[in-house]
Amino acid sequence: MKTIFKPLFTLATASMMLASCGGPSADSHSSKSASHSGGALSGSMAEKAFVAPGEHDEYYAFISGGFSGQLAVYGLPSGRLFRVIPVFSQDPEKGYGYNEETKPMLMTSHGMIPWGDSHHPDISQTNGELDGRWVFINENNTPRVARISLTSFETEEILEIPNSAGNHSSTFVTENTEYIVAGTRFSIPIPQKDMPISEYKGNFKGALSFISIDPEEGHMDIAFQIIMPGFNFDLAHPGRGKSHGWFFFSSYNTEESNTLMEVNASQNDKDFITAINWKKIEEYIAKGAGKKMPANYAHNTWNDATHTAETVMEKEVLVINPEEVPGAIYFLPTPKSPHGCDVDPTGEYIIGNGKLAAAMTVHSFSKMIKAIDDKAFDGDAYGIPILNFEAINYGTLEQPGLGPLHTEFDTRGNAYTTFFISSEVVKWNVESLEVLDRHPVYYSVGHLMIPGGNSRKPFDKYLVAMNKITKDRYLPTGPEVCQSAQLFDISGDKLELILDFPTIGEPHYAAGCPAELLADKSQKIFKLDENKHPYAVHNEAETKVVREGNEIHISMSMIRSHFSPDNIEGVRVGDKVYFHVTNLEQDYDVPHGISMIGAQTSELLIMPGRTETFIWEPKQVGVWPFYCTDFCSALHQEMQGYVRVSAAGSTTPLTYTLDDEVPGTEEEL
Ligand code: RUQ
Ligand code: CUA
After folding, report:
1. What local confidence, expressed as pLDDT, does residue 180 receive?
2. Ligand 2 centroid distance, CA of 620 (Å)
3. Does any ligand 1 atom lie closer than 6 A to the CB of residue 94?
4. Distance between Cα 219 and ligand 2 center (Å)
5. How many angstroms does the Cα of residue 93 sit away from the middle of ligand 2?
6. Are 71 and 65 contacting, i.e. CB atoms less than 8 angstroms apart?
7. pLDDT for res 41
């Protein structure tokens, strides 16, 4: 039997693995004998995923890169990769995090961090439907959230989250993009201090941050943080429709243990989903609840006019103690270390995927409200009422599979849940709690995504399953093989697997939307006459080279197919040379690149109308070339230039030319 599962689950689930659970047969784990999917796709299935050369896809899929820190853009149903949007990690291909303009995007209270671990993208909504303005995504390791423009497909803002560690339950937008959230995975001392780890229990706290989104510009701000008991907060989901105004967070380690977590955090029969009435908290805040706490966190914003990011260090955050907001926070007991916490499109059903449970728990929002009114409590934890399980529970899906992780929904009342251990997607009806279909995936699926699946209006034609392990599915590439996504057609009664495609990094989670929501408004150029970069040039006449002590600022332009200037003399060893380069093109899809021999940074890849900067510190005397790195025209290979570097202290005058014109000469400032 070929069974794929991760050591994470060995202790708690070895016995579950042995029980017959109605999961797929051992055989169906093998690609070679998988009769359900067909080892080779049949012709009609292949047709469903086929997008003819020159045709466009029906959907965009934004698949997180997991530990790559980025967000990749694919088309569905083809699975074709269009672009990797750099978010939390440097990207030398695009100069992101390397050029002077974008370096501030990666600034944090710990300094500049070149890498991140991105998990959960989510597209902005209006009235509970995707509006295609922005996609948000979280970073776990050094807690941050990012906002990416779905016009320019670039990261526009990154906000660090203080009092947080392992920002996992994030981002997840509310119905009108009022908030995204950031729930801490690790509880920590708040404020941080030097203390024994063994005193975790009762002393460490878990912050749940609500980040408000400006409705016009999208700017992010931490509206408030709720300082919760020291649990591990895992996933989150906003209410919608009738439950709009509430947010639900799953948690594990309600035991509050701090060592050998795989055993000690799995003791309690039930952990909690935390239900937070954020509208009520807003009312409390309006009446003065909460207090400003000193903090230090980076807020990095892209300026569209200057084409430059800037960092502001924020100095305080509003924190709320649960005791200050009675009636706004409740615990929903949920078996057993719930991971995914998902709300159906009607807002009535709250699904807790107890990753160590053999059953899935469905809570009812209306029963929850009634239980609150009836005060159907089973005590409290740290003063927060624990609702009676029977009073809130809608029902249980018995033995649907092993290791349920995440659930998404269609418009027909069905839910689709991933099972990590039994490697399958199970379709079930939310109201009747009946399993309708199941399909193996290859292998160890984490999240799944239906475009719009986090909104009131899912587009339920396709489902993407994102797999952690692929083993024998692709050509081997050394010790690490790719991770993958698998595309299902869910328009019929049965799940139909129609495509397998490898992904960038770990395809952790994804957001998708119909192509027509974005395609028409996709940005084509940046207008040159609106370029307010301090070193921008708007034509070749404005190009210049200026010495300021041992700094040299080259204001250079690029257009098919030359740089201006293309020859520069009078640079000396020990100088710090700034290349400020403007792409004068005003045509769609004509970026130019530039790189300089020996520059200890990446290339610049400059979009039409934009200005970018890199620094070169020549170490050696000589005549050194630079060139365009992006094949831009038939004369791309001619797009080049030289810098003459003289010895330190040399008196070679600073001159620069294009086309044997009279050399420009700059006085030393
Ligand atoms: S979590 S694989 Cu990082 Cu989204 Cu469940
Ligand atoms: Cu410009 Cu190649």
Report:
1. 98
2. 26
3. no
4. 35
5. 15
6. yes
7. 56
Q: Is 630 in the pocket of ligand 2 (CB under 6 A)?
A: yes
Look-up of token digits 């929850």:
368
Q: Collapse the DSSP code of 366 into the 3-class scheme (helix H, G, I; strand E, B; otherwise coil) and give the result.
A: helix
| pLDDT for the residue numbered 106 | 98
The whole-number pLDDT of residue 260 equals 87
Average pLDDT for the chain:
92
Ligand 1 proximity of 120 Cβ (cutoff 6 Å): yes
What 142-145 contacts at long range (C-beta under 8 Å, 24+ apart), as own/partner pairs, is 142/108, 142/110, 142/113, 142/116, 143/167, 143/182, 143/184, 144/88, 144/108, 144/116, 145/170, 145/171, 145/180, 145/182, 145/211, 145/220
Residue-wise pLDDT for 594-638, tens only, equals 999 999 999 999 999 999 999 999 999 999 999 999 999 999 999
Structure tokens at 322: 């649960």
Q: Is 446 in the pocket of ligand 1 (CB under 6 A)?
A: yes
Tell me the mean pLDDT in the region 120-145. 98
User: Which pTM does this prediction carry?
Assistant: 0.93
Residue type, 435: V
d(CA 251, CA 495): 30
Which ligand 2 atom sits closest to the C-alpha of 591?
1
DSSP letter string, 393-455: EEEEEES--SSEEEEEE-TTSEEEEEETTTTEEEEEETTTTEEEEEEE-SS-EEEEE-TTTTS
DSSP, res 392:
H
CB 238 less than 6 A from any atom of ligand 1: no
Centre of ligand 2 to C-alpha 559, Å, is 8
pLDDT at 660: 67
Atom of ligand 2 nearest to the CA of 633: 2
Residues 6+ apart with CB under 8 A from 475: none
Q: How far is CA 526 from the centre of its chain?
A: 25
Q: What angle do CA 586, 588, 591 make, to 5 degrees?
A: 80
CB neighbours of residue 539 within 10 Å:
12
Joined together, the tokens standing for residue 300 give 């990095």
Output DSSP code: residue 89: S
pLDDT at 98: 98
Give the nearest ligand 1 atom to 418 CA. Answer: 2
> Separation of 566 CA from ligand 2 center, angstroms?
13
- Amino acid letter, 86: P
| CA separation for the pair 552, 646 (Å, rounded) | 14
Query: How sure is the predictor about 358, in pLDDT bands with cuts at 50, 70 and 90?
Result: confident
Ligand 1 atom showing the smallest separation from residue 468 Cα:
2
SS3 percent helix, strand, coil of the chain, rounded to 5, is: 10, 45, 45
- In this predicted model, what pLDDT tens digit does every residue of 50-81 receive, in sequence order? 999 999 999 999 999 999 999 999 999 999 99
Q: Which ligand is closest in space to the CA of residue 563?
A: 2
Query: Please, what's the b/e burial string for 168-184 (b: 16 or more CB within 10 A of its CB; e: otherwise)?
Result: bbbbbbbbebbbbbbbb
pLDDT at 664 (0 to 100): 64
Residues linked to residue 350 through DSSP beta bridges, in sequence order? 343, 363
631 lines ligand 2 (CB under 6 A): yes
Separation of alpha carbons 362 and 395, rounded Å: 5
Is residue 296 classed as helix, strand or coil in its secondary structure?
A: strand
Q: The dihedral of CA 144, 145, 151, 153: what is its sign?
A: positive
The reported pLDDT for the residue numbered 44 is 80
Cβ count near 313 (within 10 Å): 13
635 touches ligand 2 (CB under 6 Å): no
3-state secondary structure 583-646: ECCCCCCCCEEEEECCCCCCCEEECCCCEEEEEECCCCCEEEEEECCCCCCCCHHHCEEEEEEE
Could you tell me if the CB of 405 is within 6 A of ligand 1?
yes
Q: What tokens were used for 444?
A: 């160890």
Residue nearest ligand 2's atom 1 by CA: 592
